[in-house]
């Protein structure tokens, strides 16, 4: 850890700064979880050691709760699972993820103490818990968690006071990071990473946090510069971002983008020129968009995708004469409708919407934003399916360049993109040499293989870094 240093940042308290220069895409540091658990809903689908999603998992013969890829993962888990295993057996069933994570932290403290451990810049004891900021509802939940914990915690283990147990739950509540599966597409668990807790928020950060444990530079970082990540998605106006940060993380964002309201005008853009809409009209369309988004989320979570498409088309009709191309309410609808239409194999219409979505995103997001990269990839694949090879290839190249920085060259998604880049480049060359032959070949290829199905649209669009109630 000679490349970063803890310091006090004005108005923000403890922070981390660079000691050396970092280049775009460089890994600042990688940190294994201090403790981590699989989400309750996925305990039988995800390996409890490596957090990979596997077809067949082996069950722990003792507690019948823990699941592993194989013997290696099971052996690797034993130090952390041993106490948990016998406690679950005694208790009769496994408690919820919060209790399990707290217990894993406490057993590690029992083994090593709560002070600084090797490679860490801050100890568990020293992490912030924000318990004093909790509202009534949160306090109630905290009390319930502490009670369930005490019921679960075995009498032969080291005993901790109520206050210390509350501290641990407070730490989990404000510092629980999301762990994703091997492809980084689904949140599968929660873990505590003490060093990461030192990295403060900025709506326009210089780092991104991916692959559960790596912090990567989004551009050149000079020695002495404070290191920041974004705790939330940037695609909200500053006022809404600040509200969300205050509610979930208990601080007022004073970053430059919030103070100067940078990009708010783009996010709320309206049509210009002789058909410039009235303020009332804009208000009405935004309200209509908000209401429609609620209906869409409901239909989407129920898997009624044709209804989603219908709602989106109606909304776009209302938005188009009024909202500007970078307006976030328009972009949200474009994102949903392009994803769902791709899933329904209506690639041409999907491609058109996807193109407008990424064109808008490019004005708003940081050029190396991971969400932008993922959206670009989705748009590229959609164009490819629609037979729009030129645009599709261009998008896949752009997505690849972004993911090289945000995810790194060895991430499975980056590797997939590289394969797609080579494939589309070959198809593009064929297209340029002989368009007729290209379409013939494509037709033949498509009729020979079962049509590739796009992944089902995810119901939760959570891009957040932390596991947090909304
Ligand atoms: Zn495993
Ligand atoms: Zn077990
Ligand atoms: Zn901000």
From TrEMBL:
Gene3D superfamilies: 1.10.220.160, 1.25.40.970, 6.10.140.2220, SET domain, Tetratricopeptide repeat domain. Residues 47-85 form the MYND-type domain. Its EC number is 2.1.1.354. It catalyses: L-lysyl(4)-[histone H3] + 3 S-adenosyl-L-methionine = N(6),N(6),N(6)-trimethyl-L-lysyl(4)-[histone H3] + 3 S-adenosyl-L-homocysteine + 3 H(+). The keyword Ion transport does not apply. GO terms for cellular component: cytoplasm; nucleus. InterPro entries: H3K4_H4K5_MeTrfase (IPR050869), SET_dom (IPR001214), SET_dom_sf (IPR046341), SMYD1_SET (IPR044418), TPR-like_helical_dom_sf (IPR011990), Znf_MYND (IPR002893). Keywords: Cytoplasm, DNA-binding, Metal-binding, Methyltransferase, Nucleus, Repressor, S-adenosyl-L-methionine, Transcription, Transcription regulation, Transferase, Zinc, Zinc-finger. It is found in: Cytoplasm; Nucleus. PANTHER family: HISTONE-LYSINE N-METHYLTRANSFERASE SMYD, HISTONE-LYSINE N-METHYLTRANSFERASE SMYD1. Interacts with HDAC1, HDAC2 and HDAC3. Interacts (via MYND-type zinc finger) with NACA isoform skNAC. This is [histone H3]-lysine(4) N-trimethyltransferase.
